[in-house]
């Protein structure tokens, strides 16, 4: 995959509207992940199908968290999974060629368990503690992020409590981008927040 696509990766909160997603993209989000722990598969398929044409036109990949069936039914561009969401080799096979597979990594040791050639990119975090994911692993800090990123050849997007102020540190640590939920979704103007993140990343 093109590493630049990870620059500003918007991960949705539960119950996100199409308007929120498109505001993030208008502002400059370069990748979108539908992450909704409560929505039904059919609601997520409908949302993904609604968003897909606009995102494709803008060159923004649409990823779905956890739900392989939603990816396959909606024509989304890929799947993002955590450490306990299945064998990446089996998921890669089920996705078929041309789709992206992202994997969350929380520790250096988890890198060793990734089957070669199975995963397209890593989500590395949390960098900071965050209320968005109450059950998150121990925060890595920017130093821990750097240790993981520099130990893999895979593209890496940092996640967890990130905002504009983190762009320089995350880029210096070697990550290819920042994934955010609340920095965009909880902002009074999500498009402006995404624009500020994209600008901060570009100029970092
Ligand atoms: N995985 C690790 S931290 C996190 C996820 C999904 C939540 C990030 O949310 P925020 O609001 O950007 O801290
Ligand atoms: Mg998961």
Question: Could you walk me through the main structural features you see in this protein, from its secondary elements to its overall organization?
Answer:
Helix content is 39%, strand content 17%. The chain is α/β, with parallel strands linked by helices and 204 residues long. It has an eight-stranded parallel barrel with strand order 1-2-3-4-5-6-7-8, surrounded by six helices. α1 packs parallel to α2. The site of 4-methyl-5-hydroxyethylthiazole phosphate has 15 residues, from α8.
Order of helices and strands: EHEHEHEHEHEHEHEHH
- CATH fold type: TIM Barrel
- Largest β-sheet summary: 8 strands, parallel, barrel
Bound molecules: 4-methyl-5-hydroxyethylthiazole phosphate, magnesium ion
Supply the number of helical segments.
9
Give the name of the CATH architecture: Alpha-Beta Barrel
What key phrases describe this protein's structure?
single chain; 204 residues; alpha/beta; TIM Barrel; eight-stranded parallel barrel; 39% helix; binds 4-methyl-5-hydroxyethylthiazole phosphate; binds magnesium ion
Task: Briefly characterize the structure.
This protein is about 40% helix and about 15% strand. It is of the alpha/beta class. The chain has a single domain, classed as TIM Barrel (Alpha-Beta Barrel).
Topology, pairings included?
Elements: E1 8-11, H1 18-27, E2 31-34, H2 41-57, E3 62-65, H3 68-74, E4 78-81, H4 88-95, E5 100-105, H5 109-112, E6 121-124, H6 141-149, E7 156-159, H7 167-172, E8 177-180, H8 182-185, H9 190-203
Parallel strand pairs: 1-2, 1-8, 2-3, 3-4, 4-5, 5-6, 6-7, 7-8
Helix pairs in contact: 1-2, 1-9, 2-3
The structure holds 4-methyl-5-hydroxyethylthiazole phosphate and magnesium ion.
């Amino acid at each position: 995959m093109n590493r630049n696509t990870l620059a500003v990766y918007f991960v949705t909160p539960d119950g996100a509207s199409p308007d929120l997603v498109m505001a993030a993209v208008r502002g400059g989000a370069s990748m979108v992940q539908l992450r909704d722990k409560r929505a039904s598969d059919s609601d997520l398929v409908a949302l993904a199908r609604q968003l897909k044409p606009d995102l494709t036109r803008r060159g923004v990949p649409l990823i779905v968290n956890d739900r392989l069936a939603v990816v396959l039914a909606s024509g989304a561009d890929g799947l993002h999974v955590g450490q306990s969401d299945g064998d990446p080799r089996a998921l890669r096979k089920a996705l078929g060629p041309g789709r992206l597979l992202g994997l969350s990594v929380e520790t250096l040791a988890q890198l060793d368990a990734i089957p070669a050639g199975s995963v397209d990119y890593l989500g590395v975090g949390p960098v900071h503690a965050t209320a968005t994911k109450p059950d998150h692993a121990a925060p890595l800090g920017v130093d821990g992020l750097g240790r993981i990123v520099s130990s893999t050849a895979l593209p890496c997007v940092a996640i967890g409590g990130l905002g504009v102020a983190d762009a320089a540190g995350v880029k210096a640590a070697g990550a290819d981008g920042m994934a955010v939920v609340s920095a965009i979704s909880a902002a009074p103007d999500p498009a402006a927040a995404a624009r500020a993140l994209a600008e901060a990343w570009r100029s970092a």
